[in-house]
Hints:
Elements: H1 2-12, E1 16-17, H2 20-25, E2 41-43, H3 48-61, E3 65-68, E4 85-88, E5 95-98, E6 103-106, H4 112-120, E7 124-125, H5 138-144, H6 151-154, E8 161-167, E9 173-177, H7 189-193, E10 202-209, E11 211-212, E12 218-224, H8 227-238, E13 245-250, H9 251-260, E14 271-277, H10 282-297, E15 302-306, H11 309-320, H12 322-327, E16 331-334, H13 344-357, E17 364-367, E18 372-379, H14 384-403, H15 422-426, H16 428-441
Amino acid sequence: MGTALEQLVATLGDAVRTDPVTCENYRFDWSRDPTAGIPIAVVRPSNAAEVQAAIRWAAEHRVPVVPRGAGSGLSGGSSAVAGGIVVSLERMCSIEIDVAARVAVVEPGAFNADVKAAAAEHGLWYPPDPSSYEICSIGGNIATNAGGLCCVKYGVTTDYVLGLDVVLPDGTLITLGGKRIKDVAGLSLLKLFVGSGGTLGIITRAILRLIPAQGPRSTLVAYFPTVQAAADTVLTIGGTLRASMMELMDQTAINAVEDYRSMGLDRSAGAMLIAQSDAPGAACAAEIEVMEAACTTGGAKEVFITSDPEEGELFVAARRVAFPAIEARGSILLEDVGAPVPQLPQLLSGIAALAERYAVEIPVVAHAGDGNTHPIIVFDRGDPEARERAYLAFNEIMHLAIQLGGTITGEHGVGRAKKAALPDQLGPEVMALSQKIKNALDPLGILNPGAIL
């Protein structure tokens, strides 16, 4: 392999790094997948042509390729493969705003936050907003079909992808879609690559739909004695109106945040709802009034309302900081199981029962309005028995979601962390069809092997 690597370096120059420190730094995403191998090289291309060159070299030498964005993934989707290369898109980060067409033309390494900021300069908005929006990249967002806090009203990443340039596993560069809002010519191949986890191709450019800037928001914060009462209230509100945000934190998550960074949250509450309305004019106050009434009827012990954007963002910030706050408590296994919204109360109560059964701490934060929950299992990695109980709970939570007609992943992707449970959700026929598609596009099986399928 030494001679082959020399050929890669000769082709791509300093875009290729083979030193042990760099290879170690690119092994893991945020999930810290224990199966991650050590790559033989890290390639950091600056353009699509260099991505093509790296893939053609890999195909010629049958070397596995793992595409990587910002490394903020939560499912082991960009874990390095032993003997393979990592293709990091971090250097490809250009952003161009076409105001007339209301689109952003971006490279995959651009951060979500930077796309939002560039759009905002022109009075436009890119809605998908993962909690990690400040540090996650658009390429990774597209590869996992990322969601976020505003999805309950505005949808997920796929709803904003109008076009893609993709390098296929043989090095061919294809262009799908464009700056058109409506386009049904041919098979829907564009959507095939959104959420494919880097297993079918490497995204080198995206055309993202933008919408007019979000209007002023009012925020409601309600504290409930139990998670069940909060979940039931979510159902009540959702049957009446479409909030622009509907987030839930259980008591363990609230206390984790307060331990990490004191933000004045009610530690005694069983759950907290953070809801927003961005309806225009008087409709905003009317929606908040309806939500307040639902919370009061649902048993909330305290309801706080503000139309001050900065004050409202303080509560949203508490929700966004939940992941690092919980991670500070120990090793974590992070889920993102979802269920049909009517089954949200059963999902949350089932998670609580599993925490008790396996004697593990499982704080829960949730995009409650769309039924997507994040149970986060905390354990001591140095304790083998505690580790075993944590993984048992992890698997049981996925099966609970499936039993409720839900999903093992609402927005983080299957990656390597959840692939064992995927057949239970999809069934043998869909798994077989998925494998046929993978084989057709990647007959050598070199692109992100071990992820998803």
